[in-house]
Amino acid sequence: MARVTVGIPVYNGETMLEECLTSVLAQTYQDIQVTISDNASDDRTSEICQDFAARDSRIQYIRQDENIGPLANFKFLLDQCETEYYLWRADDDYTNDRFLEVLIAKLDENPNAHLAVPRVKTIHGPEDEMPWANYSPDQSNDLLERLLTRFYNYHVSWFYGVWRTQYAKEICDRIWTDYPYAFAGDHLTILSPILDDAVVGDNEAEFIQRTYSPPKGNNLRGEITLSQRIERLETLLPVFYASYDKEIRLRRFDRKIEKRLLSERNRYAKEKLKASRPRIARLKLKRMLGLGR
Fold first, then answer.
1. What is the extent of the structural domain holding 99?
2. CATH number, domain containing residue 172
3. How many Å apart are CA 200 and CA 208, to the nearest integer?
């Protein structure tokens, strides 16, 4: 059995999928299994996947009979995994060739770590690249200081780092049950290894996130109406709050630390979910005044 599974959830990914798969297969670390879950695509995705699978026996291609939604597709892949390590790879992202080699070595060197993360570059368009967001190790000996620093200094694409499989299954079973939404769910997932002080990283591993693939119908990209935005935030905010509070309390921190972390809930939701009660009120006023559609 391979040591690591690369899970690729895809829906109508024909635009960038071939580059994604080529990047995975080019890794210097070759002891991998690649499992693709095609969420009932109706473009060339199936053809592309079957072509790659015919050429490389490490690829397992699974096609869902009907679209089960993005979060369920991500969870399906994790549930299939039987290897020691696991990572998700979005169909529009790619990495340098040593990505797996470097991050698996970090986990091997740090048995108490559950997630190994790269440095990240976000590309919003062919001529719109953000600077590298480097991984910086936490130097403080004070746990609360380390946690607060990390809360607001991680990149959301750490979600696509390398996880210890059993840990990822345990936290996703819990967190994705409490917060069953794709929007901002990656932040709550990353929150767990941060709270457990169990993240390591290495800037020799490079992850390139592309945000300009065509919208795929799940409202995670592309424009939504003002009313849809209000409805989304009103639905998600209380659930996000509840999940955040639960994750803090589950750790049974010292009372002082727990109280301080719970006091960060509103700020964390405002930065990661992009939601707060005042913001929802402002959006409603904007709609009432006819300033948005």
1. 4-210
2. 3.90.550.10
3. 19
